[in-house]
Specification:
By secondary structure, the protein is an alpha/beta fold. The chain folds into 2 domains: 107 residues, no CATH class; 291 residues, Metallo-dependent phosphatases (Purple Acid Phosphatase, chain A, domain 2, 4-Layer Sandwich). The chain has 10 helices and 17 strands.
Length: 405
């Protein structure tokens, strides 16, 4: 029987299991002791079950299963309570003593079509009764006829990243600071009219179950109706400060679905609801699940998220489907930020920010606000957060500020 690669450091467990050191004076668990080992852990965990609460833990490690107050490991139920995970939806789980250099759990949730019980139209009707028009446009005489476009991509509201080596920390406050910085820069350029394009992945997750371990990179409270309301509030706070704001265009992203599986919701339902909330508040909003073409002063902006099949088409094909003939077409996409899960190493090495630049056409991948997570860092991929401001020159060709934050 092969020895398990599980090193035991707890002296109490070593004593109870009557383990003997190997040649390196280390204690390792063999297959015959596994059941006893987990029973001891379970016994330790039960001691804390009736005395601990959500506020008892100090997060030495993000999503750690260790409770420093009692020096014991959380039970799977306590773990779910602490991080606001649906304990009743767990299909299976595995305890990982040192897999992440701290004890944790790997959890697989049941296949559950959450959106079957979630009626978007019913929610819209409720929101229409509750939300009131509060937006008061800021009008300023800029003494110019120029119109500008501010591009936001991959906001991932509700994500929380801390303590990675190369990837910068990310949370709601960092996102808010980035949005307000972009608004300040946008206002500093004289535009008679301003437009905002938000190109998908407004939230990190509606269900918390987009991927098997998506909750590893989330603020545990940012799911469901809460993430919708708070994301709307944040966007309103940023948009309300834009002078001469004319329109807001919103595209649905793969993280905006209201179901666990992308086969169940392909329209970005969460982004649709957020767009509807902003419309009720008083903004001139247009939403579409995958493409919006918006002509501003002779330039046709073709807005995609980048996760749909249409993005696999050539730039010329996209222009023929959604562009304006005889005018400059500017295709902008998001999605391919630091979490490039579907590209091979060779594809990633060839990846470029500007994908296509021709006489009357440009195709650009936008900078994200959310720059990555644990998975993308293990791939060796990282990037900077940012946003873009675009407008037309006197020839109807694009001028652009591609800002990093």
């Amino acid at each position: 029987m092969k020895t398990k690669r599980l090193r035991i450091r707890d002296k109490e467990i070593i004593k109870k299991l009557k383990l003997k050191p190997n040649k390196s004076q280390r204690y390792r668990l063999d297959n015959f002791k596994i059941k006893e080992y987990y029973q001891i852990l379970a016994d330790q965990q039960v001691k804390t079950e009736s005395t601990t609460s959500d506020n008892d833990y100090k997060d030495t490690f993000f999503l750690s299963a260790w409770c420093p107050k009692t020096n014991t490991i959380l039970t799977i139920k306590q773990y779910c309570v602490k991080y606001n995970l649906p304990y009743e939806d767990i299909s299976s789980f595995k305890f990982l003593p040192y897999h992440y250099k701290e004890p944790s759990y790997n959890i697989v949730f049941k296949d559950k079509q959450i959106d079957n019980e979630f009626d978007v139209e019913e929610l819209k009707a409720t929101l229409a009764k509750e939300l009131k028009k509060t937006h008061k446009p800021l009008q300023l005489d800029e003494q110019t006829n120029t119109e500008g476009v501010l591009k936001w991509a991959d906001l991932h509201f509700g994500a929380m990243i801390e303590g990675l080596v190369k990837t910068r920390d990310f949370n709601t406050q960092i996102l808010k600071d980035g949005l307000l910085t972009s608004v300040e820069d946008f206002n500093n350029i004289r535009f008679a009219k301003r437009h905002v394009h938000i190109q998908g992945d407004l939230i990190e997750s509606f269900t918390g179950l987009n991927h098997i371990n998506s909750w590893h990179s989330m603020d545990s409270k940012m799911i469901g109706a809460t993430v919708i309301k708070l994301c709307t509030k944040l966007l309103d706070e940023a948009l309300s400060k834009i002078n001469n704001l004319e329109t807001v265009k919103i595209i649905g992203g793969n993280h905006d679905r209201i179901s666990k599986d992308n086969k169940e919701d392909v329209k970005g339902g969460a982004a649709e609801i957020i767009a509807y909330c902003l419309e009720l508040i008083g903004y001139n909003v247009e939403f579409h699940p995958y493409v919006i073409s918006h002509e501003v002063q002779g330039i046709c902006y073709i807005n995609l998220h980048g996760d749909k099949k249409v993005s696999s088409k050539t730039s010329e094909e996209i222009v023929s489907l959604y562009g304006a003939q005889g005018k400059y077409n500017f295709i902008t996409e998001a999605h391919l930020h630091s979490a490039i899960e579907k590209l091979t190493a060779i594809q990633r090495s060839k990846y470029k920010v500007i994908q296509d630049d021709k006489l009357m056409l440009r195709r650009l991948t936008l900078k994200p606000f959310f720059t990555g997570n644990y998975y993308s860092e293990t791939l060796g991929y990282n990037t900077n957060a940012g946003y873009s401001i675009l407008w037309a020159n006197h020839k109807g060709l694009p001028k652009m500020l591609d800002n990093t934050i």
